[in-house]
Every structure is written in C-alpha cells, then in structure tokens.
C-alpha cells in the first residue's frame, strides 16, 4: 500500500510518499514561500536509498493548488507511473477541536467540521485547503485526517479547563487542546515497545523539544496533561515563542507600548523565546555563542532548560510513578548539553542521567540513564509522517473490512 502524507502550512507544503509494505520512503518534498514572489520546491526521490535524487526549483507558486500540482508532477517524474498507484492520502490537521479523538476518513461532513474549528486555529486554514484540493486532484483516492490535538483529548477536565468564566468554554470552547500530539503518541508508543511493555503499562513524560516545544504527561498510554494550550504559544520556552508568561503582560504592553493585539501576538510568537533573549532561535547557534562568552546566549540556554525542568517536576507530581523521560525532536534528540541541564539535580526524584551515554551520538532509540536509575531516560527519534501514514493505513483498512 502506498500512502501519501501531506502537511499544509500557511505558506508551505510538506509531503512524503511511503510504501507501507516495508514502510520505506519513496519520495519526500517541501514546497515553500507559497503565494510569495518566488516559491521553492525541493523534491527528493528515494531519500533513504543508496542514490537519492534531489531536485530543487525556484518559481512563483501562487497558491496551495499549484503547490499540490507541482508535487504530483514531481511524483509522476520517476517515482510513480500514475496517481492511481497512491492508495490513500493522510493529512496532518493541526486543530481538531473536541470533534475528533482519532483519525477519520474524509467526507463532506468531516471537512465542514474541520472548517468549523478554523476560528480555534486561524493560521492553519491551509489544512482544509490541502484536503479540499487533494480530493479534487486525486479523485476516488481515500483521504484521512490525523489531528495534532487528538492524542490530548484524553486529558481530564481539571487539566484542560482554564480558570476563566465558564461561559467562555461553553460559547467559544476556550480550553487547553495541546499540539504535537502525533509526535507524543509516536514516541510514547515507541518508548513503551522499547521497554518491552504495552502502552497501557507505562507512565511517561515526553519532551518534544524542537523549534516548537511541548511536554506531555502520559499515564498508562493516555495523555493526562500537556504544556501547550488553546494555541501552540503556551507552555515551554521555544525557539521564537515565549511559552507561559504572566497574561497581564498583554494589556500592559498594549497600554505602555501602544501595541495592537496583532503586534503583541507577533511579538510573542515570532520575536520571543531563545530569539527574544539572545537574538538566535537555533540552539546550535546559541551554544556557539555561549562558548564565545555571549551572556545572553547563556541566559537563554539556562532559561530554556530551567522551564523544561520545572515542568518535568510538575508532571512527576501529576503522574506519581514515572517509567521514563523521553526526549525527542531537533533539540531533544541532538542536544546533550540541554538534556544534561534538564536532568541536573533531579537524582533525588529518581532521575539519574549517565553523562557518557548522554554524549554518544547514534541513530535510533537510546538509553541515557545511569544503571539503576528508577526513572529511565530515553532518546526516541520522532517520526510524525510515519505515524500519520500508519494511522491512515489503519483507517483505510478498517473502512475496507
Ligand atoms: P520543528 O519544531 O520546526 O519541527 P525540529 O524538531 O526539526 O523543529 O528542531 C529544529 C531545532 O532543533 C533547530 O532549530 C535547533 O534549535 C535544534 N537542533 C537541531 N540539531 C541540533 C543539535 N545538533 N544541537 C542542538 N540543537 C539542535
């Protein structure tokens, strides 16, 4: 079975075609600057094979419809002979609201419900455009939606409700939804398997630390709390997002800096986090600057780690017993300094990192805790596209059964 995974951002489109008979990637691509003066499409055939073929083109790409057409042109150029070879399409959808607790086969009603959730994630309207265009372009090929929020719908009300007037939840569905759910689900399942247990037999704290960062408390395979909220701005400090701050800073800025709400929103999303503190949002640059004595880079690193560590502490309290901490995503998988800093001083809470194991760089799942550590510490590379492809295949097979 060949599954195409599509992830439409506001001005980008990521795609991956996978042969699910052996889960190999047949082709992958990224279309960027859609709607800009000059767009870009980078396409790679057989990225994991012996001779990957990469092709990059720069050209105006007016909208997502054109982007999808470019994608199909590239796929038909040596990857597949006809679009009919594609058995199903899996779409990443950021916001499923309270409507979707698992992946679903797309029909008109599903598209309508996703549309109704757009006010909760206005920046991700492109998700629906991707689905609608794919339905047109691929005819009868089944489309499946996989939601970033679905893994978090198991949170109990005392975790997902905000202490705001109840009518805001009743009228506008203001509550914590959480994001990166596909990643947290994938790594929590992989970690359980690595530990030789079923997902429902383990309690985990999963740390997705990339440009965007979030952490989940996973109890017996189900998410019971997460750091992101109504939007992906909440929680941990991130590359350019502030994470949790005193909410009164928003009206304070409006009054004292005469900023509009849109300007404050942009400031918190795009000019804060690591970038706001030291002018760099890539942790590799932050380390380089720290090593050269840049005090703000040092402060940014310490703040990032401190905020993650405090959340580990609070999730330990939420879960009581924890089998493993699971580090994933760009920073979580690659940055031994950061992992060491997050775990520093946590031995009394049962978290003992092994400095040497932590420093080794190897692909795949790795254990980096000291022998006898009551809480294990794992690095589990995330793979959201594979998770979406697996979920898509499961939905399509179930529908056909
Ligand atoms: P996204 O959230 O955009 O999916 P990723 O999970 O790919 O991001 O993470 C990207 C980030 O990972 C980079 O911005 C960088 O900060 C960090 N990163 C990648 N490699 C390393 C490394 N070797 N050491 C430290 N940080 C790294």
TrEMBL record:
Chief location: cytoplasm
Domain of life: Bacteria
Keyword Zinc appears in the UniProt entry: no
Cofactor: Mg(2+); Mn(2+)
Cited InterPro entries: Ac/propionate_kinase, Aliphatic_acid_kin_short-chain, Aliphatic_acid_kinase_CS, ATPase_NBD
Positions of ATP binding: 14, 208-212, 282-284, 330-334
Oligomer and partners: Homodimer.
Protein name per Swiss-Prot or TrEMBL: Acetate kinase
Source organism of this protein record: Pseudodesulfovibrio hydrargyri
């Amino acid at each position: 079975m060949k599954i195409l995974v599509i992830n439409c951002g506001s001005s980008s489109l990521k795609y991956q075609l996978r042969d699910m008979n052996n889960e190999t990637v047949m082709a992958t691509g990224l279309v960027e600057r859609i709607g800009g003066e000059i767009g870009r499409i980078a396409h790679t055939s057989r990225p994991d094979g012996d001779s990957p073929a990469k092709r990059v083109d720069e050209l105006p790409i007016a909208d997502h419809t054109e982007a999808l057409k470019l994608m199909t042109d590239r796929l038909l150029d040596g990857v597949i002979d006809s679009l009919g070879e594609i058995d199903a399409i899996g779409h990443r959808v950021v916001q499923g609201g309270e409507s979707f607790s698992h992946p679903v086969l797309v029909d008109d009603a599903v598209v309508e419900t996703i549309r109704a959730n757009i006010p909760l994630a206005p920046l991700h309207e492109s998700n629906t455009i991707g689905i609608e265009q794919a339905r047109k372009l691929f005819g009868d090929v089944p489309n499946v939606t996989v939601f970033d929020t679905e893994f978090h719908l198991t949170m109990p009300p005392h975790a997902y409700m905000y202490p705001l007037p109840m009518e805001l939840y009743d009228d506008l569905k203001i509550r914590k939804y959480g994001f990166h759910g596909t990643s947290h689900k994938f790594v929590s399942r992989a970690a359980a398997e690595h530990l030789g247990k079923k997902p429902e037999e383990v309690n985990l704290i999963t740390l997705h630390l990339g440009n965007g960062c979030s952490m989940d408390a996973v109890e017996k395979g189900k998410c019971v709390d997460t750091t992101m909220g109504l939007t992906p701005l909440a929680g941990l400090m991130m590359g350019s997002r502030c994470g949790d701050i005193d909410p009164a800073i928003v009206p304070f800025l409006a009054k004292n800096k005469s900023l509009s709400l849109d300007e404050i929103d942009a400031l918190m999303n795009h000019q804060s986090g690591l970038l706001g503190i030291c002018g760099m949002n890539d942790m590799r640059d932050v380390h380089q600057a720290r090593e050269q004595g840049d005090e703000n880079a040092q402060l940014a690193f310490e703040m990032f780690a401190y905020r993650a560590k405090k959340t580990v502490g609070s999730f330990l309290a939420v879960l009581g017993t924890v089998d493993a901490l699971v580090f994933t995503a760009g920073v979580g998988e690659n940055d031994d300094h950061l992992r060491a800093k997050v775990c520093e001083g946590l031995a009394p809470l049962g978290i003992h990192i092994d400095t040497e194991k932590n420093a080794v760089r190897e692909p795949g799942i790795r254990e980096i805790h000291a022998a006898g550590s009551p809480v294990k510490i794992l690095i589990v590379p995330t793979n959201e596209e594979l998770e979406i492809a697996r979920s898509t295949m499961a939905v399509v097979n179930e529908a056909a059964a």
